[in-house]
Prior knowledge:
Oligomer: single chain
Helix content: 55-70%
Radius of gyration: 26 Å
Amino acid sequence: MNYQTPAVLASEAAAFPQRRAGALWDDLARALLLVLVILAALSFRSYGISTDEEVQHIYGKKLLSFYLSGFQDQSAFHFKDLYLYGGLFDLVTAVLVHVSPFEEYETRHLLCALVGVLGIAGCWRYARLLGGPRAGFVAAALLALSGVYYGAMFNNTKDVPFAAGMVWTLYFATRILNQLPRPSRSAVLKFGLTLGLTLAIRIGAVLAGFYLAVALALYVALVARREGMGVALSDTRRIVVALLPAIPVAYVLMAAFWPWAVQHPLNPLEALRVVSHFPIDIQTLFMGEMVSSAAPPALYLPVYLAVKVPEAVLIGTGVAVLLALAWFVRGGWRLRAGFEAVRFVPLALAAFLPILLFVLMRPSVYNGIRHFLFVVPPMVVMAGLATDRLWVYAERHGRRAGQAFSAGVTVVAVLYAWQLGCMHPNQYVYYNQFTGGLKGAQGRFELDYWGNSQHEALQELIAFVERENDGHPPPRQYTLTVCGNTLAVRFELPPWLRLVNGIEPDWRRADFFMAFTQVKRCPSLLGGHPIIEIAADDVPLTIVKDRRPPPAEIPTE
């Protein structure tokens, strides 16, 4: 019969409320993920086809043809510049569309949304691993309430899957660091799995391997300092042997979804070289001026992050940095503290190194931060950890202080949720109040560069014309000219509405004209009577003009 001392019983009694609170935060995180899955299922049809999706979808079909043809059809490896990217998402979609009950692009959007939720789940697990259940929930909620991420979850089918893959790779890398010098085979294989899948989206996933390598080097240096070089070398051999199984797992998965990468040993390096400085030059709006995407200003990415990421995330990230500095001053430089800090190395590198590299190397960009979306989850994890620490400090000052802090966090979350709800389905154009919100960003920064709002504008136009005909399709065919993203409307046109873009002289005589405000010349390209305006926070994103002659001017037969 086992007896426990009063001290042990008291310790367990004191720990019980903490375990209970941790279980509550975990349950809240799971509930949040369930709500997000339901929201995705209910709203994925509301989002338009982005300007990149058609070529990505074709790429996926070509990769599928490569396998179905017994490796004979190699057109995927010569299709535009898509072969420089992994085809994981596109190939999976090309398979799913044959069994999906939805249209092709609807299937893409639903799958992308679910992958986005998976990324939020990764953010939860990562922050929980580093800071506990409450930090995990806060991080997941912050990412879900970030318009720059949530709004992109439905049709940014390149950057959202990559961001989701990176956060899971960082999570398993940290699991490995927590188990040094004998990482479990499970953690190693899962790291190889997530790294391989993320490489099968974009070669930039090599950064995750670099983050782990830096943390391992720091650990070995600390061991050498504490126990001598002999022990450090012994631990190094043990770690290297333990990590070896991750390499073939990652390589096989990368090869399966990105076969071009393994056709020549140096192909991944070639992809890294080219995508860093794409030989493509488009104009992108930055602080009121059009700048070259091939040679962006050094501050392009830092400024865009400062105005696109929610204020709570930016402040939380800054607080996390200050807390880290305070920890260092109080003794973080000591040997024992150094071992505790090793597991935070990948997080710090993931949040800041890509930004530093951008400032130094100025690689090609397109619109805003979409190619650097993968730095947002690490920033959110840092903000979640900082929020949890501030919460602890508040609770130490009494119950009322803790409740006040909790109320403040809740109010901020409600305000963000309300704002994103009002912006639906154009949440990705969100800007924080550091630049005055959308109104402050108008004319200074990129807004609806995907042309997502044109999908909603088309639905409004269809409803407008059918109302004119007592809820029925009109008796004649009308024509439509679009200045912007024609993909967002091309696949949804009813039989009575014909797209005449590029057809001379029909496009100049179109009955209706749709223009997005992203390009300044678009709204004034053709005249007409404005009948529809799709806006977010009262900032117009797409307008539709009725160019039909008034009824009195219609000639009679």
